[in-house]
Each structure stands twice: as C-alpha cells, then as structure tokens.
Design brief:
By secondary structure, the protein is mainly α. The protein has 2 domains: about 1-50, no CATH class; about 55-155. Helices cover about 75% and strands about 5% of the residues. The chain has 2 helices and 2 strands, in the order ββαα. It has helices spanning about 40-50, 55-169; strands at about 5, 35-40. Strands 1-2 form a two-stranded antiparallel ribbon. The longest helix is centred in the middle third of the chain and has 115 residues, at about 55-169.
C-alpha cells in the first residue's frame, strides 16, 4: 500500500496585492500544480512493520478488535443516551402540552373571573348609589316627620284654644 502526500514547490507564495488574496491563494489550500510524492513516514512505517515479527501484527489485530469493541460500546451507549433523550423530549413535550392546556384554562377562568368582578363591581356601585339615595330619602322623611310633628303640636295647641273658646261660649 503506497500512499502519497502533496508536495508544494511554491508553498509560501507572497501576496502582491489585495486583489490576489482569495481563498485559493492561501498556503493551506492545494494549488493546481501540486504533485504527489510518496510519504517518507508511510514508507518508513511499512519498512518497520515488515521487519518486525508477526507478533506485532497479532497485537495490531488485537488492538483493532479492542478499538472495535470500544466503538461498539460507545455506539450502544450513544443509542441508549439517544433513546433516553427521545423519551425525555417526548415527556417534556407532553408536559408542555399539559401545561399549555392548563394555562389556557386558567386564562379562561381569569377572563370569567374578571367579568364577574366587573359585574359585581357594577352591582356594588349601583347598591352604593341606592344606599346614598335611600339615606337622602330617609333624611327627607325625618325632616318631613319632624315638620309634621311640629305642625301637629301646633295644630293641637290651636285645637285646644278653639275648644276653650268654644267651651266658653
């Protein structure tokens, strides 16, 4: 297996002006004229692997199997976490819907209570007005009664004088 990495003869080109500075001029982007050269690190690694006994190959296989098991374990944990998250999201959505419904019913109750309160406030205002009017009428009647009592007392004294004068005739 031979791998290659791009080699850049013009890796760090100076920018002459702002017009030339676009994304493809940056050193981290492969230029079109890049050539592929075999990687020395890959070649050295291949030499080292071929010169070591097959025990290292077995160990490498064992490490790959362990990594695969670890990946499978992480995948199982991820699936469990994902299932838990879905259950949590569903539960939260159900609670949100329940709370939204409850809030809606509370808003309706609040509106009804406010209407009843306004109605009762109007009735109380009418009652207060009626009480004031009745108190005024009571004072008027008391004055009329006091006036009638005075007139009765005066009429009674006039009546007694008339009887005295008639009795003396």
């Amino acid at each position: 297996m031979e791998e290659a990495i791009p080699a850049f003869s013009e890796r760090y080109l100076p920018m002459n002006s702002l017009e030339e500075s676009n994304i493809f001029d940056r050193p981290d982007v492969f230029p079109a004229q890049a050539t592929l050269v075999p990687s020395r690190a890959v070649a050295a690694n291949q030499d080292r692997m071929s010169s070591q006994p097959s025990v290292c190959g077995a160990k490498a296989v064992q490490m790959v199997e362990q990594a695969a098991e670890l990946i499978k374990e992480y995948e199982r944990k991820f699936v469990a976490i994902e299932a838990d998250a879905r259950c949590f999201i569903e539960r939260v959505e159900m609670q949100r819907a329940t709370l939204k419904s409850h809030v809606h019913s509370l808003q309706i109750s609040l509106a009804e209570s406010e209407m009843r309160a306004r109605s009762l406030e109007n009735a109380l205002q009418r009652s207060n007005t009626e009480i004031v009017e009745l108190q005024f009428e009571i004072r008027t009647l008391k004055r009329g009664l006091e006036h009638a009592a005075k007139e009765l007392t005066q009429s009674s004294s006039y009546f007694q004088r008339i009887q005295e004068k008639l009795g003396s005739i």
